Amino acid sequence: MYKMLDPAELTVFITGATSGFGAAAARRYVAEGAKIIATGRRTERLEALQAELGADKCHIITLDVQDRAALKAAIAAIPAPFANINVVLANAGLALGLQPAYEADEDDWDTMVATNINGLLYTVRALLPGMIERGGGHVVTIGSVAGDYAYPGSGVYGASKAFVKQFALNLRADLQGKNVRVTNIEPGLTETEFSLVRFKGDADRAGKPYVNTVAMNADDIAESIFWTTILPRHFNVNRLQMMATTQAFGPFNIYRED
Ligand SMILES: NC(=O)c1ccc[n+]([C@@H]2O[C@H](COP(=O)([O-])OP(=O)(O)OC[C@H]3O[C@@H](n4cnc5c(N)ncnc54)[C@H](OP(=O)(O)O)[C@@H]3O)[C@@H](O)[C@H]2O)c1
């Protein structure tokens, strides 16, 4: 029988636990006996999650990953029962808008860079030394198929996810001999609040990508995240890309004059 790690030995720090993948992962880990530190900006959602999962298994911190100082201070103040973090799920992120680059809102670009790139960097940088000191751990970053494949309007979002992929691979190179695994999870179409955020609350527009098709859901992604982190320690999944069965690759887009 193949021997997986005991999830009860895991303490998982999750960014973006108030919704989507992060919330589903929080539930998945706690259901298997792990402890989690759930973070995000929306305190009332964190409180509801903690009420659901129990304060002995779920510690919550209201946190904006863009705020490096707040992140460091919050990590330093984590109470002892949750302090031995051995999995970091750097998941907080967003897409804003779908305009071509020449029409895109530069504030949207700033927010995506500040969250998907800087916030992820701050999270990983703040938590890595502790994991190394404690003898090992696992960094899971959330990339996207948008980090590999261009599509119209993907702009800075896709580029930010390409950054995340390369940063995860570079981390692997730095962490040789430190017993810290790194996995970049790269999902395709998945129904969460992602689209609602992208279209700034326009529910009609946000629902369109999911009409008359079957997308992946947050539990699918949580399952993949969970699996990579309970594999035996000698085994590192570098990148894991997944799509809904209904999603595949388009033809090259050739512009033709009428
Ligand atoms: N859904 C998809 O199709 C898809 C596909 C590939 C990759 N992804 C990626 O997967 C990750 C999770 O997305 P999701 O689909 O689960 O979307 P979601 O339901 O909108 O969840 C996004 C999470 O990120 C958090 N977040 C956003 N900005 C933050 C900030 N500045 N500080 C802290 N937390 C912040 C949100 O929490 P608060 O608002 O409470 O702060 C929320 O919990 C993202 O990195 C996204 O780019 C999504």
TrEMBL record:
Name the Gene3D superfamilies for this protein. NAD(P)-binding Rossmann-like Domain
Write the record's keywords in alphabetical order, separated by commas: Oxidoreductase
Q: Which PROSITE patterns match?
A: ADH_SHORT (PS00061)
The residues covered by the Ketoreductase domain are: 10-188
Could you name the domain of life of the organism this protein comes from?
A: Bacteria
This protein's record includes keyword Oxidoreductase: yes
Question: What Pfam families has UniProt attached to this entry?
Answer: adh_short
Return the PANTHER family for the record.
ALCOHOL DEHYDROGENASE
Q: Could you say which protein family the record assigns here?
A: Belongs to the short-chain dehydrogenases/reductases (SDR) family.
Q: What is this protein called?
A: SDR family NAD(P)-dependent oxidoreductase
